[in-house]
Amino acid sequence: MSAPEERGALTSRSSLYLCAVSVQQAEPEGLWSLDYAAPPDRTEPRKQARRAWPQTRAELTDMLTPLLVELDAASAAEELQRRLSAMDPPVRHRNIHLLVRGLSLENEARARALARCLVRTGRSVQSVCVGLALLTRLGEPEDVPCLETLGLLRDLVRPVIHTLDAIDRRAAALIHLRNEAAKPELSRLLGAIGAGDDTAVRERLVALPRTIGPEDARRAAEASQLVRLLELDVAVMGSSGRVGAPSLRTPELVAQAAWLLFQMTCVRDSSPEILSYRDAVRAYESLARGAARHLAPTLDHYALLLSAAQELSSGAGVLHDWGGPGRRQAVVAELVAVLDRPDWRTVVDREGDGAGESGGVRRRTEWARRARRQLARRPAGTVEGLRIEVAERDPLEPGTVEARIVVDGRPLVPAVFGRGAVHSPEWLLDSGRLRATEEPREVELAEAYCSEGCCGALYVTIRRDGGEVVWSDWRCPPPPQSALHVRSIPELRFDAAAYDAEVRRAENDHTWTWPARKTARLIVAGLRDRPELLTRWGVELSWAGTAFSNLDQTVLCLRYAGEDGSLTYVMWCIQEDGTLPEDRAADALRRPVSEDPRTYGS
User: Fold this and answer.
1) Helices marked H in 265-359 — which ranges?
2) What is the pTM of this model?
């Protein structure tokens, strides 16, 4: 908190910390005020040109390095603020964090003192962010109250959360929820947490709608201490050997925990939040125990448990520190044991209601059958070398179908890229891109969820070298004007015979697919064999698959160049009608023989 002489009317020269203290004093019982922000910049407007990262890195390094060794904290903080204010255009806080993360800190005590001085006396967002970036590396629990106060300022919310993530994950989650106060379901949860009422927290947590995003799901789990609630509620043998009495809402809490974990694994619009959830291992263990004891066999529960087992077999959840061999496999086995109970098997063995929810129940039931069969065929234990596992997400929350690449038991793409899903089996397998030849070939394994131009893509060069297949020359290009770095990934070598057999197996395994998707694959194969069907019209295939909102509809995206050279896209849609995919594909391939495909979308 501020000293008595620091309190009172704030001026444009006041530190941001004092501004935050004024917010705290103005609304001591309030959770958040959107009416406050950092003090306004009263200097003349500066040009909004973008600063090149190499220039920024050089300037910040030259600026910070001597200040960390030559001056006392107060003098260094004042000098740093003066120099930062002279930078035009101003440096972004993201670049500050990136620079400080890689900065050599010979005297950590001096750097920590400078950081604490900056967060308390900094008069600009940039100077405070330097302090926050240093505390991300050097912060201690005693810094949390100051950071929580700074988190009341809108301009500093994200930088403060980033720093608190390294020191106190729950404090970071609480600030995130306050920043999302416009969402009533999150504000109600926050109120229950603030009241310290576990019963109310359970009720608000269970009441969270399934519309919240992956980060909100993780932050809600962290802020509410989901794992603690699960471990309290799930019947656990105590020291006396007696089983504890669960809460009346235990089944609902277990089901909601399964959904929150499922949402954290989404990679459609974000990085997999499950990698940032430090309690993931305990959460999955509590889920498996709770499901075995408290969940009723319903389609929703079946799908959520199946998704968890799928994730722990080949998804990003594998990458957590499971504390020794067999622990993760034991959780998967416990989940599968529940799914294999006779009353649970009945849920998916009976026919789905094709009319219910516009076929949603039927599609989800069919997905559950396919995914369960795939899980049953997965080899027991850790497979050495290459394993390719096609993973289709629960159609309740549609996502991409991934051709997951697992190397020595660990999923490769989330481990080395983590900014988007693995490409589809059509892209990697049907095209033969993963086949190894004497001629080196570069293959794109994944693209960022936003786009390659924004956050990059993951490339590898595949070649055959005698009795081995080599994956090398990894490339993860950063977008223009970005501070993203190419990750250093080691060269991978596989036994050539085993590699070829695995690629062949994956290419020929079509059991994961469904009728509309199979129709798309058959049409693509036909167009690959007879390219003249489209080229005679000046048309080419952009992509093929199923509609995101209607998995029973085959979609082929065609494109052609107009007279001015601009590209025009045509969406060719084929609705599933109960006929065989082979027949629908044959009918589709006959159409461009006599009909211009440029007219298909009209």
Assistant:
1) 280-294, 299-314, 327-339, 342-349
2) 0.87
